[in-house]
Specification:
GART, seven-stranded mixed beta sheet, alpha/beta, Phosphoribosylglycinamide formyltransferase, chloroplastic, plastid, 2 domains, EC 2.1.2.2, chloroplast, Rossmann fold
Length: 302
Amino acid sequence: MQAQSMLSGSCPNYKIPSIPTFKNPFFSSLTSNPSFHFFLQSHNYVSFKTHHSPCLKGFLKKLLFCVNTTENDVFEEKDYKKPQFVKRKKLAVFVSGGGSNFKSIHEACFQGLIHGDIVVLVTNKPDCGGADYGRSKEIPVVLFPRPKDEPDGFSPSDLVAALRSLEVDFVLLAGYLKLIPAELIRAYPQSILNIHPSLLPAFGGKGYYGMKVHKAVIASGARYSGPTIHFVDEHYDTGRILAQRVVPVLANDTAEELAARVLQEEHQLYVEVTAALCEERIIWREDGVPLIQSRENPNEFS
């Protein structure tokens, strides 16, 4: 409520200063952007729930910096970052199992680490742990594909219509074991991500999932493994690779030990990539390779 009072001007000990008339390049670009006025009123940007507060605090910090800057202050381009008003993205997550990556992404959204919100969960197993978690957080759960004996399931066209009605921006597969239909891929080009528990293109494709992947890695004698995040096409694990994280395969590893080591990296990597996705920091190279732009230095990519 304190934040709300500050914005409304009703806080007895604080008033937002009037907008100065001097020319400050940072402040001019801020106030000239139509989104500036929308920002103060839109639920997409200002909410007094905990998981939106970092966005609000960061905005107020920039605002107070600008209004306290004197008329004679001069900035060069390298001394400040121009504000980039990016709308809060809406995410759909697909799961088939426990949904640990789904949970880590949801928690990161709640904590303000991701500029987005999960608005729907899609699963082919309505009783899986991921679906239970989604319902406990009041996230709508959709059954897809439709089983023959389940009238409530969605067809591919139903699913596309539902995601569009929810204004979903990106689809994240988090342990979803079904092949994504062509209708969905066409509806969301370069907007569907998957995470796989090996360093693709090794140990990927149909039949390589879960513990089967880690057993195959150990049996091969590979010294390294790790998660891969890639864009989804119409085949299993063949889309463009976006990010990877490497872990060692130890001499006496069991599949369970390797899986735990990879999963720990998965949780961190998927949050980082989703944050970049929602901040529109995915850049496509001329040869079709996607890169992640650094938040701190736009000229650096990974």
